[in-house]
Amino acid sequence: MNIQQLLKRDSFIELTARSRARALLDTGSMRELIGPFDRMISPWLAMQGVVTQSDDGVVVAKGTFDGQPYLVLAIEGAFQGGSLGEVGGAKIAGALELAAEDNRNGIPTGAVILFETGGVRLQEANLGLAAIADIHSAIVDLRRYQPVIGISAGTVGCFGGMSIAAALCSYVVVTQDARIGLNGPAVIEQEAGIAEYDARDRPFIWSFTGGEQRHRTGLADAYIEDDSALMRDTVRAFIQRGLPVKERSDRYPEFLAALAEVDASVQATPEAVRAIYQKGLSL
């Protein structure tokens, strides 16, 4: 991207969760379900002296995309690192379940999920894990009818149980600033040691879990510049493509076969990781 393109771009990453949802849906079509004025706050954070947010950091936007009914579920990474607890998780799961029910009733409702999340909220532990499990189930249900499109733009990334949710999506879109991984860098360093994974080494981290690497390994379907119009065009292309011939998560036997050949005693490299996943995709 040259300087002129940079000046003209409308950054998607710099938008709030609510603004990202509005940028994706048809102009003027967005209405928010269980929004901030409904005061659906987490009952658990205040007990632990944590300041709550009136929408619990999750935006559920209903509207249209090119005239078709669509949901955009956006996680606000600026609140508690985008972590999910009981309320925020229930909002996402419930909206996805209602979208699937719409499809069974002849209303072709699709969904886009904006992942800016570290995963489960530690203060809510098992309640958050249960909510994320409900999200997984709801994605698998809805994707039988309409593509479920996941987006990880930046800057928080997508980690923990919500990285599994992203993997269950029909299509995944990433930018250069995106990161997707089951465990965050600090967790890996804590458990395996700094010699194995230095959480302060940003180039090293992005070389393994960054958007470009995830796209090159086949775990993301589009790798794009940070631009709101381009993001909308990319979502449109996947909607028009329709359901995948085979969901990526249904190819787990091939990936497991490729992973079984990995020598864990040897320090992994980005190139080796790409080779492993590409082999899994080719089986």
Automatic annotation (TrEMBL):
InterPro entries: AcCoA_carboxyl_beta, ClpP/crotonase-like_dom_sf, COA_CT_N, Malonate_beta. The keyword Lyase applies. It comes from the Bacteria. The keyword Chloroplast does not apply. GO terms for molecular function: acetyl-CoA carboxylase activity; carboxy-lyase activity; transferase activity. Residues 1-254 form the CoA carboxyltransferase N-terminal domain. One of its GO terms (biological process) is fatty acid biosynthetic process. Its EC number is 4.1.1.87. Keywords: Lyase, Transferase. Transmembrane segments: none annotated. Pfam families: Carboxyl_trans (PF01039). This is Malonate decarboxylase beta subunit. It comes from Glaciimonas immobilis.
